[in-house]
Specification:
alpha+beta, elongated, 3 helices, 3-stranded antiparallel beta sheet
């Protein structure tokens, strides 16, 4: 399937890839732009030039060593814990919803929510800095109160797609959730 181009809430480019594995299984992935070597080089150069200036003034070589160490350590932390390249949502009608975040370092963080706990998938809105931001979230059913919601799980927190992209993801999720609601209950015997 081809990528569809959208914009994030901040105006940056993102791409949505939707794959339908079967009638009740869809994977929706939002990709953010990869880390640019130009911006990385600019930040590293600025830090090292500032450290060199301090070295010239203080004549202490520890300043240069500390700048190199802090830059490399900061880059590793940023790539491994902050910079997310892709967020994906795998919706399987009979099992549940898997949410995966892929970091720039290659690390992946995955959460699985059983379909029995899912009450609904909705588009919510929030006001942030005099702006309305839309986000997709999963409402989890309260075990004590079938009509209540125990938790709200926001999706695509890093990429922050705009409403047009969220509507497409929402429609795909709702199609599968509707199939689950209209399917006859299985008794587990084949």
């Amino acid at each position: 399937m081809e990528d569809r181009r959208y914009l994030s809430a901040s105006g940056g480019p993102i791409a949505l890839r939707a794959r339908q594995h079967s009638a009740s299984c869809r994977e929706l992935a939002v990709r953010c732009p990869r880390l640019q070597l130009r911006s990385l080089s600019a930040v590293t150069s600025a830090i090292w030039l500032a450290a060199y200036g301090l070295f010239v003034l203080s004549q202490n070589s520890m300043v240069l060593s500390a700048a190199i160490f802090i830059t490399l350590f900061g880059l590793i932390i940023y790539l491994h814990f902050v910079k997310i390249d892709q967020e994906s949502l795998l919706v399987i009608g009979s099992l549940g919803i898997q949410v995966t975040s892929s970091y720039a370092s290659g690390k992946e963080s995955t959460t699985f929510i059983e379909m029995g706990r899912v009450k609904d998938v909705v588009i919510n809105e929030a006001i942030h800095m005099q702006k309305v931001i839309y986000y997709l979230c999963i409402l989890l059913q309260d075990p004590g109160d079938p009509q209540g919601v125990s938790e709200v799980v926001p999706l695509f927190q890093s990429s922050k797609p705009r409403l047009d992209c969220l509507i497409e993801v929402y429609k795909s999720c709702q199609e599968i959730l509707e199939q689950r609601k209209t399917a006859p209950p299985s008794n587990g015997i084949k």
